Amino acid sequence: MSRKKGIEQLLLLMESLIDEPVVLTLVGDGPLRERCIEAAAMNPAIRFIGPIQDRAEMAKTMAAHDLLVVLSQRDRTWEELFGIVIAEAMAAGLGVIASDHIGPRSLLGAAELGNLFADNDLDGVARLVRKLALDRDELQRFRAGHSNLADAFRLSNVADRWEGVIAPLTDEAHKLG
């Protein structure tokens, strides 16, 4: 819950979607925790549940939602890199909307789903969220467009890639040994 993770943008987004059937669930902890608690107290469409340490509970929470929205904000020395939460969300069947940073772009860019936005393009994000909130068929197509993207991060695929790295090293060690 920090500025660089786009919390302020998420709260502004909810202000612009006040009349839409959209609920924002904030998960996590950090410097803007109190700001999130206050926003949830003022807006019934915002839920703050704090940090979730248990992986099964996190998976259950994700599965209860349609979208993950990650509006990270660059600064002079940082931008969103890999973003494991994006891979986890796709594996859980969620659609993802994210800032166009190197990590989200590497995970989502090839699909060309129109879900990567410049840091300051809150209007574009709001238009997409509104469209998905009002058209369940479009939401399902959007979510389905992410399903194959998660495959690269499934345990079996990661294990196969590591096997491809480790096996030649093991073979070489046996030859030298």
TrEMBL record:
Domain Glycosyl transferase family: 2-143
Cytoplasm in keyword set: no
PANTHER family membership: SULFOQUINOVOSYL TRANSFERASE SQD2
Name of the protein in its database record: Glycosyl transferase family 1 domain-containing protein
Entry-linked SUPFAM superfamilies: UDP-Glycosyltransferase/glycogen phosphorylase
Record bears the keyword Transcription: no
Domain of life: Bacteria
Organism: Mycobacterium adipatum
Keyword entries, A-Z: Transferase
GO MF entry, a single one: glycosyltransferase activity
